[in-house]
Amino acid sequence: MTPPSIQQVWEWLDAVPDPEIPVISLVDLGIILEVAWADDTLIVSVTPTYSGCPATSIINLDIETALRAHGIAKLELKRQLSPAWTTDWLTKKGAAKLEKYGIAPPTPAGGPQRCPHCRGNNLEKLSQFGSTPCKAQWRCQDCLEPFDYFKCI
Amino acid sequence: MAEVDQKALLQFLLRMGDNTLVLGHRVSEWCGHAPVLEEDIALANTALDLIGQTQLWLGYAAEVQGEGKDADALAFLRDAWDFRNVLLVELPNGDFGRTMMRQFLFDAWQSIMLGLLQKSNDKTVREIAAKASKEVAYHVERSSETVVGLGDGTEESHRRMQEALDYLYPYVGEMFLSDDIDTAMIDAGIAPDPAALRSEFDSLVGRVMAEATLTLPDGRFAHKGGRSGYMHTEHLGHLLTSMQWLQRAYPGAAW
């Protein structure tokens, strides 16, 4: 049996949702750094978003479950710290899905571009810390709705 | 490459990891008790980052130690005299103002330290510092803004922040002391001389305190004994009884 191609594995991983923000995949999040075969062992290198992110162990479990279901027998998950994860690695597809879900995607300016609910840009920061390490709390002064902002790191 | 003294490296890593562990635990004590919801969430997030950084520092410490232990074993199965954190981080939280003042003083030091550690000769130290410094940039931004907000706030909040600064300042000096372990780290190009961080620290803290309308104490007396392990305050033992209780009562418990 020929082993699945690297491209195929990336596609499988792109179907594994982030446990905290299930509208985006682990590939969208940019935390899968490398997929490679070493003989008959598949090696997947994963980097943490935040060093204390409690989702890390669930993410590893979800990757393993998904790849095993696709018939990968020998699998090694590597934690790779460097280069450190940055929100620049979030895919465009992921950013669009975040906004549709109600989370403003990160912008180079360091704050949300517009309200994910009403598209207004009369915004105020409530706190740099939110419901997960990767999010900040903002509020739209037009529609008065609070919303999460995926903060730059 | 020169042989790095592994015992000194281990001590250096314990100092880094015990600082974040003990402060992370202290900050986590606020969970569910902060004055407003946003602050509660921010404190819990800060604690989480610090504990995450602890896993990296103590994980590497365990590897260097080479006795088959892991970060959890170092965190939960050592006694007070084995801890190498500075006294500042083990002090009780006090009120919210004192907690935030302590956080700022530590964040200011840590942000400078992590910046310098990104030039370390040790690859793992460099990688941990690069990862942690991104998180600490958010910590120091928040703690400095809170110190300014409360210091230059009401009469009551100003008084409490000045009291917090007066109480905590004698614990600042320990972060800049050095000993044989630091010398070994400097010689190996692993970590900077702690004393070399003081001027940048003073200028950052001076700037924030001026904006907060708070007065820095003149005295440079420093309580010490934490990072050398010579003598911790009585508060560390109490903290450990709470933090280590589960692993002590049920060794090897996992979930």
Compile the SSE list and pairings:
The complex is a heterodimer of chains A (153) and B (255).
Chain A: H1 6-13, H2 26-29, E1 32-38, E2 41-46, H3 56-69, E3 75-79, H4 92-101, E4 103-104, E5 123-127, E6 135-140, E7 146-150
Parallel strand pairs in A: 2-3, 4-7
Antiparallel strand pairs in A: 1-2, 5-6, 6-7
Chain B: H1 6-28, H2 37-65, H3 71-76, H4 87-90, H5 96-117, H6 123-151, H7 155-168, H8 180-187, H9 198-211, H10 234-243, H11 245-249
Describe the structure.
The complex is a heterodimer of chains A (153) and B (255). Chain A is built from four helices and seven strands, in the order H-H-E-E-H-E-H-E-E-E-E. Chain A has 153 residues and is an alpha/beta fold. Chain A has two domains: 80 residues, 2-Layer Sandwich (GMP Synthetase, Chain A, domain 3), CATH 3.30.300; 61 residues, no CATH class. In chain A, the strands form two sheets. A four-stranded mixed beta sheet of chain A has the order 4-7-6-5. In chain A, a hairpin with a 2-residue loop joins strand 1 and strand 2. The mean pLDDT of chain A is 93. The longest helix of chain B is centred in the first third of the chain and has 29 residues. In chain B, 64% of the residues lie in helices and 0% in strands. Chains A and B meet through loops of A and helix 2 and helix 6 of B.
